[in-house]
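Entry 14. Structure prediction run on the chain below.
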Amino acid sequence: MRENRFKKILVYVLAAVVGLGLAVVLGISLKVGWSLTHPQREHVVLPTGAGKLNPKQVSFPSRQGGVTLQGSFLSAGNSNRTIIFAHGYGKNRLQDDVPALDIAQVLRSNGYNVLLFDFRGSGESGGDMSTVGQNEKDDLIGAVDFMKKMGRQGEHIGVIGFSMGAVAGILAAAEDTRIEALAADAPFADLVKYLRVNLPVWSDLPSFPFTPLILTIMPPVLDLDPHKVSPVSVVRKIRAPVLFIHGGSDTAVPVSNSEELYRTALGGKKLWVVPGAEHVGSYKKRPQEYISRILELFKQVK
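Output returned:
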């Protein structure tokens, strides 16, 4: 009698422990998934001397979600060519780890207008969530819409994107033929495949059981579909010339991603792997060659 009672109590205790453990794992997964899609904003602080560029503050709507985006427009006078910059995850329009503003200055001095803007949930833009490319693609198309409404300055458009911005650039260029040339610096090829391998790096959690849990529970909770963020699935649709740039020592997004995209792409495509460069570090490693290569690419925006 006592033995049966003890067994029942033991079963109840074990069930409670297992239930508590599952609740803890689920709670951690939800918290981490939420934090990864809601990165802390990096405020836009123009570096000393940037005022001489005379940036014009602009705002425009995304194509999706009623989100208002904020940006800076650098005019090159009467130029009818504009290069739109698309920043990476957790960054803002200045992409200070590149830094993007240095490249923007060179492009403007070579006759290109430049539009730098903050994706949703970043910098000074509206929204509070990063979708790692899914809705950022529509933000970028919203930037193209904005430039087209500016008349002559938006007659011809190119895009340079970094990391997540490169992914958004590929997704947008596959859909929007108004993008006449694309420089994609350090993109991943497929979000689901990338996260299955690399989510532990971003979450600081062991792959099992957290990675499959996060990938299962977060999409319906946040109304996201990571399967839509697959540059390699759409890159064949791009008819504009594309320059894939990747650091040979990139541990955040391995160079194999750009190599796969390059193999899959059609038409005018080039791949430049920079030995020793880390994630979005190709410009810092080879600044003169970087500028030379993107100027050669953007000659086709005319």
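The CA atoms of residues 62 and 139 lie 4 Å apart.
Filed with the rest of this week's runs.
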